[in-house]
Every structure is written in structure tokens, then in C-alpha cells.
Structure prediction request, 243 residues.
Amino acid sequence: MRLSKFIGAIVVALAFSAIAVATASAVETLWKWLPGSAKETFKGKSGKATLTSAFESGKKLVGFVCTKSLLLLTDATLKVSSELLEEGSTEGKDATLALLIIHFEGCTSGGLPVNSLGDSSGIILVHVEAHNCMIGAGKFGILLKPLLVHLEIPSIKALIFVRGDVLGQLLGTGLTLTYTLDLNAPGTPPVQEFKKCEGGEEEKLESSLDGGVTYSPSTEDAKEGVLEFDMTKDLNGEEMMEK
Prediction:
């Protein structure tokens, strides 16, 4: 999967103090990184990550399991690829979204190596846009919107397409540089814990075994997701999030 600039990723000298803000379109209730946070870089990682797809209208559950994930570095200078971005021309350069590239390692399905199309065995790369939204009172959400992902299981010549969005929650309080990303799908069959942004529509993650003709429901679960910011753009140590 190509997670552009995911999991394990998003915060600078932060703290959860907030004030709910809605976009001009007034669809979802958003929150912002404070002014000056645009272009702030961060890094992240997770432990075991699992994509579960219910093919054939839920009759057959197929799991894609990776041992861990981390954010990619983009060049020889080891510049972190993930950064907070402005959306439009927000006053004071408030950051309202982020770009991620997620690198999943040790990926298998039924014991067989899985990779994103054209990548090394067991490696899945995903490009993702991450949008800020509230998911309830005092709950800061991160809506992960990956580009279309092409997975392959070379040994059986299988090609799987993955599309859609998945919602997680950022956990942490006080002036800290490190946050937990809760991306949880409990149960059998698994059900995504967080389903929609406040004021928005229900998010869906889907997979296809037939070249993108028929898509079936999917979930994403990641253990020990962590986002760590470097605080280079917040020299005064201000809290980085506001509702």
C-alpha cells in the first residue's frame, strides 16, 4: 500500500486544548493545528497492522497482516516525508491536513508474501492524505485517505485493489511531542471502531479481488500507533491543536 506522507504519524509541540471549527462547506466539524504549524514535520510507526476484507458478501474473510509500519524518508538527507499542510489560504498558516507515506513490512496473507504492486516481497507502500476532524466531544480524529492501493500475492498471481477511507483517534494531553494513534477494528468479523467524522458521512474502506469490478467491506487495525513531532516550527512551545 502506498500511504502518502499513515499510520503511526501526526503532531508537533502539541497538546489537546481545543475549539471546534467547521469548514466553509460546513460538512464535517474540523480542528486545526495552531498558526505556524504548517510545514511541521513528524515521524511515526506502528506494530502489527491488519487489513481484513470480507469478500463474497462477507462469506470469506481474508486478512493481510504486516509485522510493523513506519514513515518513509524521502532522500539522502533523511528528511522526514510527512508534514502538516495548509488547506487553501487559511489565515496564519493553520495546518488542517497532513501528507503521509507509510511503509509496511513483513506483509503476508495466509502465510504467503504480499506486496504493493512493483515493490519488494513483503513490502506495502501507501500514499495517504490525512484530514483533521472531530469524532465526538473532546475526540480528535484523523481521517486517512489513501490513494488507490494495488496489492499482489505473486505466488498465486492474485491482485487486490484497496480504496476508501479509514478513521482513527489521536490520544494525548499536555505539552508533548508524542501522540498515540488509535486505529482499532475489534470483533469477528472486525468492525471499524470509529465510523464517521462529526457532521460527516460514514467512512468506508473496501477491497476488490476482481480488478476493481466488485468491492467488499474492509477494516484496518494497527497496534501501538505513535506520532512524534519535532517542534521546529513551534519555538515558543505553544499548544499545537485547537478545536
Remarks:
- The first strand starts at residue 3 and ends at 4.
- The radius of gyration is 18 Å.
- The chain has one domain: 3-242.
